[in-house]
Amino acid sequence: MMNLPVLLCILLVISTVQAFQYMELVKYVDSHQEQYVETLRDWVAVESDSSNILKRPELHRMMEMVAQKLRRMGGTVELVDIGEQELPDGQKLLLPKVVTAQFGANQSKNTVCIYGHVDVQPAKLEDGWATDPYNLTDISGNLYGRGASDNKAPVLAWIHAVEAYQNLNMELPVNVKFVIEGMEETGSNGLDAMILAQRDTFFSDVEYIIISDCGWLSRRPALTYGTRGNCYFFAEVEGPKQDLHSGVYGGTVIEPMTDLIGILDTLISPSGKILVPGIREAVAPLTDEEWKLYQDIQFDMDSYKNKIGISQLMYSNKVDLLAHMWRYPTVSIHGIEGAFSDPGTKTVIPAKVTAKFSIRQVPNMDPALVKRQVTDYLYSVFAKRKSPNKLKVTMVIGAKPWLAETEHPLYKAGKAAVKRVFDMDPDLIREGGTIPIARTFQDVTGKSIIMMPIGGFDDGLHSQNEKISRYNYVEGTKLFIAYLYEVSFIKKTTV
Amino acid sequence: MMNLPVLLCILLVISTVQAFQYMELVKYVDSHQEQYVETLRDWVAVESDSSNILKRPELHRMMEMVAQKLRRMGGTVELVDIGEQELPDGQKLLLPKVVTAQFGANQSKNTVCIYGHVDVQPAKLEDGWATDPYNLTDISGNLYGRGASDNKAPVLAWIHAVEAYQNLNMELPVNVKFVIEGMEETGSNGLDAMILAQRDTFFSDVEYIIISDCGWLSRRPALTYGTRGNCYFFAEVEGPKQDLHSGVYGGTVIEPMTDLIGILDTLISPSGKILVPGIREAVAPLTDEEWKLYQDIQFDMDSYKNKIGISQLMYSNKVDLLAHMWRYPTVSIHGIEGAFSDPGTKTVIPAKVTAKFSIRQVPNMDPALVKRQVTDYLYSVFAKRKSPNKLKVTMVIGAKPWLAETEHPLYKAGKAAVKRVFDMDPDLIREGGTIPIARTFQDVTGKSIIMMPIGGFDDGLHSQNEKISRYNYVEGTKLFIAYLYEVSFIKKTTV
């Protein structure tokens, strides 16, 4: 039996060795910053917009680039065929392959699987970007470009974390797997089936799944333990067989736009209340614990207002605002396809107009029920108008919310990693956005999941001038390096 | 003193000579049909979209082409500088020059001035065109292309009418002037001032103004004696300083789209009734004479419905329908700029959205008053929402309606020309669309105006697959030839 001083001595040696290794890794990361930025530049240059079918070749190219990068690092890499998607007109389009990779297969170590995506939201210079969205531009340490923060830099940070261990000839503390997809921004088409298919193969030895597809709430690092889901709807009103001159025909036909505006206006009250019957009733009530947690979170209402650039938020106190950001549903009307949307004037009666709107999902809402509630409601509202036009409501995305246990060892390891890199405790936050795959991973594989963001609170995801700061990108890489180390200490039995 | 038989004989000879000349002209036109189509092809190929500032160079080129064509025919041609337009951002952009031309200056003859425009509405293949909108395509005798009917073919038909007289060495029965502009589709910016400036020069010897910027109501030729005006509005709601991710921010901000949809929905009732207070009260009541006239017009409700492709019109009897097409106001919502309008899904909260809508004007509405009624109403509706967003309502086009006297000699000459070419009486119709310049010509120059359309009832102006048929283009050219002859008989004193 070992006596206490000897044990302490051994522990000290281990601790010193580990601390030393970390500093080596930090030095490596700092000295490779420019290379990291250049690789991000190459990735951002690929217009991998998954919502635009015309850009599909770029998306395929993007997946190849990811695979190549991982192959060069010696990973066991596969490009997994996930089939085709059916377009509204019945045509079939090849989905971008999913990249899987594996580094290490030591059965005595934990195995983590990092999920990320390399497709992006649409972006055009004319939308109001200050720089070309597909040309990564460094302005005062911020790297502007579509997909920079969502989600290309975080994916690269994970890859670079593994690479740092490799290039310093340090053994990886855990086995690392990657699942990188290219359809996240449009609902991860095909990924659910792929996960299900590989549940007992690729995912069988995975203990933990790590997702870094979100952002901090402030300048303080954060761990995310919940996300909202999303039900995305198309409401199409079709009238004349083609667009009509509003002078020549105006006054003789009930215009589809009038009908569409009319039904959209019944979705939300002026103060933002959802008017679709049954939606709000399903929401889990706010608990005292949540109230307390929100109350303690570092969140400055004024800086949030300034960031958005508005004079008044929907709620004037922090807890209400955070609750409505994270754990209450909301409706957004994104736009209308088929109507006149260019600058200038056009005197047209659009023949077919399709509104796009979505309802964020929270526990205990059920997308299948929401679909029925919304469609039933809109059809009944439309019927009252007695219009000769035709309404078609479809739900094109139905993603569930996700919620984790913050006392899980995964989160404890996360807190330790944040402490090591940033010398502070992370905020425990939720995410208003949707990472549907978290819920799928949980439901299908039964594995525990942690969300560990490195994106800044002001990165402008999905909007103009998306960016990630060099600070978040580089320190984020260090965080991931530290996390691979911390997560190795979780006993395999805790799975 | 001449005796009766001699007089009759002389009259017979004159009549025979004239009839012979007309048949020569008809033969000339028929044998030049392919050249007419080719010239139209050249003109349609120019993307002279006046609403898109990026196409302005094309518009300038179009005006040069018109001037060159008229110069080659020996006309006295000028390209009149009408200054600049100010864009919403304060930038200045050169307006397309106005082409004026003169053929003949015989003081004993009447002088007519033909007005037309060669700018077009926007058109993109993706909007649902079956053919490239800027490549004139002949399908079964219909010539498809943007601007084919509105208004390039009618302008060319007038030019070819003059050219036919010239090339057959026949004296023009009247002096002919042209005023061809390039800003009609966006409100004839700069033309009013030009007409005012040249009232006592170019326009001083003009007796009659002829406009062929409209279409027939059915397969029967028509003369148009009235048009609706148009007040075109932008309603801009501005909130956050940039677009936001609807997941991340949804629930914390009052979204501009919600506000915009809310105020748009207060413009029109589901049955098409204008809800802006005061608008309907200004409209002149339908007279018994009008009722009788409409009752007699050849108009088939079923073929109108089929053409549009809808199951039910806003009114089920002919008189109500024609009245609402021609002499009642109507509101059309054309679209929204700044929101998501592409195919696919985007989870965005648009930061600034601008609705485009217009209200057709009829006697006795006053655009200045309508502007006040609409803006006051929308601001008051918006105020009730207590939104932190900002609303800005602007009227960007304010065009008055126009109405002519159908018993005027100009119209009698028109009836005679139609009779000669088509062997039938024309319908006397009004136009739901707007030709604001008619009203300006009337107000500024005091000249009498006739609208003599040659476009088909199903030409699809302002919509996809605009076309003119070879029949209307060619027979229309003959109609103009005949009209130049008929109008020469109006006594100069009737002006």
UniProtKB/TrEMBL annotation, chains A, B:
One biological process term in Gene Ontology: proteolysis
Recorded GO MF terms: dipeptidase activity; metal ion binding
Signal peptide bounds: 1-19
Keyword terms of this UniProt record: Hydrolase, Metal-binding, Protease, Signal
Cross-referenced CDD domains: M20_dipept_like_CNDP (cd05676)
Domain Peptidase M20 dimerisation positions: 226-382
Taxonomic superkingdom: Eukaryota
GO cellular component: cytosol
Keyword field contains Protease: yes
Family as reported in the entry's similarity comment: Belongs to the peptidase M20A family.
Protein name (database record): Cytosolic non-specific dipeptidase
Species this protein is from: Betta splendens
